[in-house]
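Researcher: Let's run the pair from yesterday's discussion. Sequence first, then tokens, for each.
Model: Starting with the first of the pair.
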Amino acid sequence: MNPYDRSLALRVRLRRRRGADPPESVAVVITERDLLEQGAYATFERFLGWAFDHGAERVSVSVSVLDEAVVPTIERALADVDSPRRLAVRGPGDTDPVGAPVQVNVGFGGKREFAAATRALAHEVDAGEVDPEEVDADAVRGVSSFRRSRTS
């Protein structure tokens, strides 16, 4: 275990000794360049194991890409990752919600997902399903493509 991993593990143990619960969700933002490093996918697998070993219930990973042409290659490589829990890999064109404990979105800049959530809310308001006064950050989160499914 490298020094950074030991430091994180120590912090988690200290929080537990003080009676604090471990975080339920862990979020990580990486770049396509991070995945080009030798051993990157093995490191990613170890990270997933570490997160769940320390009490996380969900891990969300955003992979920022400069060149959208690499998205399919990264999606295929990530789909082959040996994950301790079910893993969903999504690209910019994916809009359906997923409920996998490990959610990896590749190439989302945030703008596209926010626009899709805003459109979905506008349709719900137009159909009379949602009162415009009820539209807030929680409403946007509720229609975002990475919300937890009701069955997970």
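Model: Moving on to the second of the pair.
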Amino acid sequence: MKDENRSLQQDCEALPELRAEIARLKEVADLAGGVAHNFNNLLQIVMGGIELALLDLGRGNPAPLTATLERTLRSVRHGAETARRLQKFARVREEETEHDVSICDLSDIAAQAVEMSEPWWKTDPERKGIKVNLTHELSEGCLVQGREGELF
């Protein structure tokens, strides 16, 4: 009986640590879900860009290829930035320094997001006969300090 009480007391003492570990694992699972979602979005942009490039080539119209490939390349770079942040989270890379922070214009970042997501909101619907017009009036000078890859 004395051994059972001691075991029960040890189990009760370990309970807060177990709860903390469960909470940490839940946070990691939430992070993994967010990362998977982010990478799926990036892959969709890359696939859409490649499909557009192939369509342009098939139509004998190579002129829009450069813009399409530049958008696709920016998406890949954002994916690389996400991977870098994950490595930092996992403490694989050295800590960032303050010089990694810069002044960013949110209007530029928003314009990039509109341009990079075009295959979703424009090209795919147009294939189904749906016409989408997006008008954006972004004023320059909405400056913030941060890492552009994290703001995007």
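Researcher: Give me one sentence on the second I can quote.
Model: Strands lie at 102-105, 143-146.
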